[in-house]
Automatic annotation (TrEMBL):
Domain DAHP synthetase I/KDSA: 20-267
GO molecular function terms listed in the Swiss-Prot or TrEMBL record: 3-deoxy-7-phosphoheptulonate synthase activity
Enzyme class, broadest EC rank: transferase
Record keywords: Transferase
This protein's encoding gene: aroF
Keyword Transferase: yes
Record-given protein name: 3-deoxy-7-phosphoheptulonate synthase
Full-protein interval shown: 63 to 334 of 345
Keyword Metal-binding found: no
Length: 272
């Protein structure tokens, strides 16, 4: 594979030791597998509180949930906004889990960082360079999702923007790419996991939910991702997926499926 290596700080040549990001008692990129679970979108205080409880009870370390949603169409539900950040922060604190939420614009970075432990850059914003530059000015860990049509080189250059700005706490997330196959929503590129880990020292997280778009594929692709060496997973789970406010209910696990997946994963890799 010909890689231009125009990036430097993201490269393993430059930084041979794997980066371990410590957030409270959780280490991402070390020996433990880190699981982030929760709904596509924060919907209400009751919803996120109950899901936080289930995430914690199952042994996962991080609660996911979007307050700002990057929707393909402008008439779709766009997220509950800042109120959602508050709801999720309260639920995370109450149940003792870290939180991750998506930030879409540079102006919202500071408020998102005030409420969440990890900031997510979505696939559609991987090359939102102003956003990446702004994320370089803070120290809050960032989960950078791979653009759905981006090469590894473009992905690592996007990470380089954040690192070059002065924030070393970046993790990479493979969330599926666009291919000719239409049975699945995206094609989860499993090879990205070992490739990125060889090219870069940054932790690699897999997203089998957006990577397949189908609930029944989340469990096998979670296990495949761990077998391929992923440092963690980000998985959608909802208490009432059929009535979720985004279309991602079809890829969201029911709580009992999520709990069972956690038990199975524990046999494959040590959890926190
Ligand atoms: C999400 O995590 O809900 C999301 C919108 O992800 P992506 O950016 O990978 O589509
Ligand atoms: Mn989603």
């Amino acid at each position: 594979v010909k890689i231009s290596k125009s990036y430097k700080l993201a490269s393993r040549d430059f930084h041979p030791d794997s980066t371990v990001i410590k957030i409270k008692d959780v280490e991402i990129g070390g020996d433990q597998l880190v699981i982030m679970g929760g709904p596509c979108a924060v919907e209400s205080p009751e919803q996120i509180d109950e899901i936080a409880r289930l995430v914690k009870a199952s042994g996962a370390q991080v609660l996911r949930g979007g307050a700002f949603k990057p929707r393909t169409g402008p008439y779709s539900f766009q997220g509950v906004g800042v109120e959602g950040l508050v709801m999720m922060a309260e639920a995370g604190k109450k149940h003792g889990v870290l939180t991750i939420t998506e930030v879409m614009t540079p102006e919202y970075v500071d408020v998102c960082a005030e409420y969440a432990d990890i900031l997510q850059v979505g696939t559609r914003n991987m090359q939102n360079f102003d956003l990446l530059r702004k994320l370089g000015t803070i120290q809050t860990p960032v989960l950078l999702k791979r653009g759905f049509s981006s090469t590894y080189d473009e992905f690592l250059n996007a990470a380089e923007y954040i690192l070059a700005g002065g924030n070393p706490n970046v993790m990479l997330c493979e969330r599926g790419i666009r291919t000719f196959e239409s049975y699945t929503r995206n094609t989860l590129d499993l090879a990205a996991i070992p490739v990125l880990q060889s090219l870069s020292h940054l932790p690699v997280i897999s997203d089998p939910s957006h990577g397949t778009g189908r609930r029944e594929l989340v469990e096998p692709m979670s296990k495949a991702s761990v077998a391929a060496g992923a440092n963690g997973l980000i998985v959608e789970m909802h208490t009432d997926p059929d009535n979720s406010m985004t279309g991602d209910g079809v890829q969201s696990l029911f709580p009992d499926q999520f709990a069972r997946l956690m038990q199975d994963l524990e046999k494959l890799a040590p959890l926190c």
